[in-house]
Write a structure and sequence with these properties.
This protein is α/β, with parallel strands linked by helices. The chain is built from 17 helices and 14 strands. Strands 2-3-4-5-6-7 form a six-stranded parallel sheet, with helices on both faces. Strand 12, helix 16 and strand 13 form a beta-alpha-beta unit. Helix 1 packs across helix 12. The N terminus is likely disordered.
Amino acid sequence: MTTIASGTDTLTRDALTVLQPGFTGTTAPDWLLRRLGEGLSSVGLFGRNIASPEQLAALTAQLRVEREDVLVAIDEEGGDVTRLEVRTGSSFPGNHALGAVDDVELTQAVARELGRRLAECGVNFNWAPSADVNSNPGNPVIGVRSFGAATDLVARHTAAYVTGLQSAGVAACTKHFPGHGDTAVDSHDAMPRIDVGAEVLQERELAPFRAAIAAGSKAVMSAHILVPALDPDLPATLSRRVLTDLLRGELGYEGLIVTDGMEMRAIADNYGIRRGSVLAIAAGADAICVGGGLADEETVTGLRDALVAAVRSGELPEERLADAADRVRALARWTAAAAGPAGTRGDADPVVGLRAARRALRVTAAEGFTPLTDPPYVAALTPVANIAVGDETPWGVAAELCRLLPGTRTGSFAGEDAGSAALQEAGTRRVVAVVRDEHRHPWMAAALDTLLAARPDTVIVEMGVPQAPPRGALHIATHGAARVCGRAAAEAITGE
């Protein structure tokens, strides 16, 4: 049952309501439970908070003892970005694989099953899907998180994903507005900039968000990117021109606007998270996402106090903060009403992700290739994972090949000597080389050259965005590095 502390004034409650903080541990700390009683309406979960579905369900139940309509948010895209299965790899192949299949009914079914699993664990708000058009192949942070490089493709699958997810009673949060696909910088590290004209933005970046809005997306997440054609001075998250004039006004969006993580360096290094949060709410954001990196009580109280002080100084209109808080509460009411009994979420489809991963494979075999029957050596050519993906989640095909061909061995390689080092470790075994975004890493392409020159029968599995031409005795493009993508590739390698 929700109990608001009697000593908490309306302004302070509103300031707490617009925050979406994280925390550490697999049970809720006392300070978080106390803040829920004082007006906090949302909590964000990350991989560090999840050990099992049973533990997650107990955690969300613990939160609802303090506030029954709490928004429990998570960054669960499926594919490379997973929190539910952070230590095992995802049961769902991710957006790029779904875009490669290009079956909107399949995308909707995958999102529905993902939403059903979230709802079973008490999670009712997902910071997904990514509606970014991956128009820059060198993009270091979007890549396989996008449905693809074609605007129409991204638009129709974004709409299908929103529909599927919300049919399970989980609010979708379409991101990263106004589009993060044409960037060469990761906003976790610095401020990206998109230098294209307004006409290109209208036709390319904004089309998937229009589709998401038409599909009823309950939330939209802003991007920490500078788009001079829209606002030459402020990044989208802090720009009234972008959030209020464009998203609310021109696109007619009425749902919740959430910021991307405010501790990301694009904001934190240039504005600070407290100042940035005040500017974001003033610009039209309704909820402040924080907690991926800063997950303590001091962060929450500091942001709360900064918002209260900004209202009292006249910098932030009190009605703007109240409006933002009202939108958060409205979404909380929707999720509470949409939850319903477990049986109303539809039948479980536990293998829909694997079916999708199998359909997403693009297999190119050299003449005379026969499936592997002896345990190979898997050489994983491993780039540094971007922060959104993280380095906790396993990827590749080694585990699945070990299951199908016991005795398979594996190693991870990077840098100028990766190819020669992999050859030395492989010995006489057949080599399976696993790569991710070869086109973005010259050392990786050189390593494949070395492997293929010495061992032309090498099998190559590309688990990133496939840009380089197929080569090797067998070349498999999985369009993602989720666990099910590895399983589908292993089946193709062994002829299962």
